[in-house]
Design goal:
heterodimer; A: 325 residues; mainly alpha; 1% strand; B: 305 residues; ABC transporter involved in vitamin B12 uptake, BtuC; 4 strands; 67% helix
Chain lengths: 325, 305
């Protein structure tokens, strides 16, 4: 098995990655002027979801295949809590994130006993428990899901019922979550995480508790996935079974893989590409499943290096040419 | 009426039978997944779709005169389908390996997982386009129709047949892989492909046939399932996740473990339906979690690498 992760980040990446991130941020600030805000919300929540997944897949080297469980748990927690309790949206989201993080700690604790494909199968099975739970309990309303979730007032003051206001609220929360994930990776803990991924035996011999480091990453990742799920449920005023379905777990792997694992901008680009493609292919009606499957196959066979790897190569050749001239 | 734990004995034995039947299919399917996983290091998510394919091939064979009217094709019945359908699914599997799977052997597991999920979506999606989500009926062969009333339960012949045949096929497969020379070559080819190649054995061909064989088992299970469950595009969809859990419970690359835990979990699931119906969908996953706590390497697991 070859590692999917580039051991050392090329110097050219640091240049273009930063520029691209700032361009995207600038775009995000003005985008509602010419794009449907809820479509942008979808992109933001999935970028956050993909970045959360990148923490365990890219930086911890764990192939989790049940991340929809954490996305969906928070989604249902936020939907049900705002519907039944008189709480503000930010409290509902904190509640949702806590539920997901706790579930992440429990699932992670069980699953990190095994690695590789077994880790994938175990997380999938655990996520399936969550799926059947929401498929069966009365208050989740089965196939219909929890509908017409109230968005409420942010801090009890700002009405979120307008889509544009909602978008900027999501953008704000998104930035907090996204920057937090970057901070985790850049911290000394993040370095330990990468060390465990690259050479577990060596990290252990240096005194690191490998499984505890992995478990922390899994819990943080689950919490951030919950943040994405909670924002999604609040914005679309819906929590449904597709939020906990294994296909969503597969999609988030796809996003990170075609963007570029263990990079900052990879999950961002991957999520944007996947959401835009899905939006485009939704018009194919009955063919959707076939087309989506074909995309999975094509991406796996055709996008080995991911978007980031491809751009890195292009940037390198440009740089070489520029130096020659 | 005789009661056991407050449950009528007919309900208990009835669900026990259902559990055994489900267990037979879990075993057949986990066996194929365990072989492919153990030999090729691929989590074959598309196994459920290949099982569905087996059932549909049997249905096609039976309905040949209706599908191609005027050509004069004969209707191929259950007994012939039992041999033909697995062969056809084997060929499809070998083709899938040749076209797709072999391209991801050397890559991270995430690639093979996404690849097989994508293939599942394409195959199931195509069948859904043609047949919707409703099921096509498939008759039990005449020889095995009916059953016998044992007093405490009704015993349908076809179900007894399914259980017997599954047990025989499962253990024959275990014998071939663990106890014959062919099996030894196979295991060697996955342990050290370079060395086995030096002996003049065509390793890529061998891997292709192994994948085809595992998939053929799924096709076989599909034919067996056709008269019990209806033949429908979604019949393998949720099954594959249960099968993955069964493989985890059975233990790392353990073929015997997959067989035994398949039957065991089927029975446990059936009994859960009697005592706590709501939990029957998740009981297998919960047991998997508990087994992981007590025996991280599964019931019959070798030590993980």
């Amino acid at each position: 098995m070859t590692a999917i992760v580039l051991k050392q980040e090329p110097a050219t990446r640091l240049e273009w990655e930063k520029v691209a991130l700032f361009v995207l941020l600038g775009f995000a600030l003005v985008a509602p002027a010419f794009l449907y805000p809820l479509f942008l919300v979808r992109i933001l929540t999935f970028v956050l979801f993909a970045s959360a997944y990148n923490l365990i897949f890219g930086y911890a080297g764990l192939l989790g295949f049940g991340h929809a469980a954490f996305f969906g748990l928070a989604s249902y927690a936020v939907a049900q809590s705002t519907k039944t309790w008189p709480i503000t949206p930010e409290l509902a989201i904190i509640f949702g994130v806590s539920v997901s993080a706790i579930a992440g700690a429990v699932f992670g604790w069980l699953a990190i006993r095994r690695q590789g494909l077994y880790f994938a199968m175990i997380t999938l099975a655990l996520a399936q428990i969550v799926y059947f739970f929401f498929a069966q309990v009365d208050w989740a309303h089965g196939e219909d899901g929890i509908q017409s979730v109230p968005r409420g007032h942010f801090l009890g003051l700002i009405d979120l019922s307008s889509n544009t206001v909602m978008y900027y609220f999501v953008l704000g929360v998104f930035l907090v979550g996204f920057l937090f994930s970057l901070r985790v990776v850049a911290s000394p803990y993040g370095e330990a995480l990468k060390a465990v991924r690259d050479n577990e035996a060596r990290a252990i011999s240096l005194g690191y508790n490998a499984n505890r480091i992995r478990l922390i990453a899994f819990t943080i990742s689950a919490g951030l996935a919950g943040l994405a799920g909670g924002l999604n449920a609040l914005s679309f005023q819906l929590a449904s079974l597709s939020d906990v379905h294994y296909l969503l777990s597969a999609e988030v792997i796809l996003m990170v893989l075609i963007g570029g694992a263990a990079t900052t901008i990879g999950p961002v680009l991957g999520a944007i590409v996947v959401v835009v493609m899905q939006n485009y292919f939704a018009q194919f009606g009955a063919w959707v499943l076939v087309v989506q499957g074909a995309i999975f196959v094509a991406c796996v066979l055709g996008m080995r290096n991911g978007i980031v790897g491809t751009v890195d190569t292009i940037a390198k050749t440009w740089l070489k040419r520029a130096r020659k001239e | 009426m005789l009661l056991i734990f407050g449950v009528p004995i007919q309900a208990l034995t009835g669900q026990l039978m259902v559990g055994l039947i489900n267990g037979a299919f879990y075993s057949l399917l986990s066996l194929g997944v365990a072989i492919i996983f153990g030999m090729l290091r691929i989590a074959n998510f598309v196994h459920g779709a290949q099982y569905m394919l087996g059932a549909f091939v049997a249905w096609f064979l039976l309905n040949l005169p209706n599908i191609f009217p005027g050509v004069g094709l004969p209707a191929v019945g259950y007994w012939s389908a039992l041999f033909l359908a697995p062969l056809i699914v084997f060929a499809v599997g070998a083709l899938i390996e040749f076209l797709f799977i072999r391209r991801v052997y050397d890559l991270d597991h995430a690639y093979s997982l996404l690849l097989t999920i994508g293939l599942t979506m394409v195959i199931e999606g195509l069948f859904r386009l043609q047949y919707g989500s409703s099921g096509q009926p498939y008759e039990i062969p005449e020889l095995l129709m009916g059953g016998r009333n044992l007093g405490f339960m009704f015993l349908p012949y076809y179900r007894v047949w399914v259980i017997l045949v599954s047990v025989i096929v499962c253990f024959a497969t275990w014998f071939i892989i663990e106890r014959t020379k062919l099996g030894a070559y196979l295991r060697a080819a996955t342990e050290d492909p370079e060395l086995v190649r030096a002996f003049g054995i065509n390793v890529p061909m061998m891997l292709m046939l192994t994948y085809g064989f595992g998939v053929g088992l799924a096709g076989f299970a599909g034919v067996m399932a056709a008269p019990i469950y209806q033949v429908s595009p979604g019949m393998g969809q949720n099954l594959i996740i249960i099968v993955f859990a069964v493989v985890v419970v059975g233990g790392m690359g353990s073929i015997l473990g997959a067989i035994i835990s398949g039957f065991l979990l089927g029975i446990v699931e059936g009994l859960t339906k009697v005592f706590w119906p709501e939990a029957s969908t998740t009981v297998i996953f919960v047991i998997m979690a508990l087994i992981l706590l007590v025996r991280p390497n599964g019931l019959i697991g070798k030590v993980a690498k």
